[in-house]
Amino acid sequence: MKFKPLLLLLTLAIINFSCFAQTFTHNSSGIEAMQIQGTADHTIADQYSTITQLYYGSSCIEISRENFKVIRWDNQDNNLKVRLSMGVDTTDLTYVTYGSHIDDVQRILGTPKSAGQTYFDEDVYYASYEFGSVSFLKSTNKVMAWSNLSGNFNIRYKPGENTKDETFFTIGSNTDQILKLFGTPPRLYPQGENYEYNVFEYQNGDIYISKIYQEVVGWKIKNKNTFDIRLPLNKYTTKLNFFTQGSHLNDVLRLQGIPNSYSPFADSNYIILKYENSEVYISPETKKVTHWNDVSNILYDRHDEEAKVELESALNSKTVFDDFDFVRYKEFLLAILTLSFIGTSYYVTKRLYEKKSNQKSAEEDELMTDCIHSEGWSPNAHLKFDEPTPTKKEEIFIHPEIYKANKLIRITNLLIDLIFINILLYALGYFFAAIGYAKMVTESPYVFNGIAIFSIYFIQEFFWGKTVGKLFTKTRVVNKEGREPSVDQIIARSVTRLIPFESLTFLGKDSRGIHDTISNTFVVKDNSNTTNFNTKQEE
Asked: Terminus-to-terminus CA distance in the chain, angstroms?
């Protein structure tokens, strides 16, 4: 009894093998195909060709004379005993998608009408069905292209999780965002010298996607109103009303608007912007205009020496803020403004509370004085003559010169702070990459790091009077009077830290750095017995 399951499996395997043995496929030997199909009705073997064609009615099998293997077939009369694949590398999907294995295509779509090696590339082979076609990369046997213009093909390309709540796309938008906006493309195919990008062909235009970075690198649209395309153009632009040789790509886009065609790989030497029939050629390396062809007479171009002089003057007059990408950094700037608002609100509230407390204390003292004078009673009558009379509440402070931190403590602070800041910068980088803003970090690292470092130092010293390093060494920041520094002083300290190598300037004679000197502050030892900001003590 226990052998029955094994016998059943063996029987099924034999039946399955028998079925496969009665069929051939792409790359089967020519002898095997002829044994299965029998004698051909007629054969064509041109002496100038490397292919032998075997016809069975209108159906045809093409065999390579170099290796004598089947390279393609066309089953017009449905009389060929053929399959797309013989393997079992399948999944549970009910549809074909980008990257599906050829075995899954056979399982889902069945045997195609015709299939085989493409004429233009022997590393790619195709499978044609009644409603469309699928192409595979020979080295992986996985789907790399399709044509589903009828819409009846069981092919889907679903977006992943890397999407945004936006109704437009731009250069750098990822594949998931395009699929979310427009759905599965009716036609998808690779292009470029080494298939470096995919073309998503929709009814109203094509979108070019980099296969390496999986992001938009260009497009070709029939009507600009059918696609919502936006470009951040504040970077590398001038205020000139024309472009000329040497103008930046973004200046052309600012003047001319969104092109009908943005083709980064249409020519190996240029990025080509097409406006109707006019074309502007851009260098891929410098992103600057090399030449143009204004067939439609719609370009805002100038090609004279005076134009080049004006362009050079405009570029020399630009400042750092002219190239700052406020659009790309809007979320980060909003976060900084929010933190600043919270910090300012905390500071103002704290000061108002202290003022109200001092006013209330003064009123109570005045009321007590009135009671003493009216009743003739002294609160100190019970004290001995030599016992000191309690004084008013006084603010405790640290003398900056006496308790000033030495160089060893300052070095320790610096090392701990650098470790902490680098951990935070890496965390922020991964965070922005996770939410789809990786370019914000990679394209402008100095701006990103500068804003982050300023914010980290400002928040720590504003709220707690010390950084993480100072927390470990029990030191803190005070003003020249030994009290809590003002907001202006903390801002001055945080901004000055952005100067290159400024963090080492405390190695001078008085153990004070440039950020200490400019803000008129000191780093002192934080003795819990004598140091307590904004606290009162009765003597």
From this structure: 99
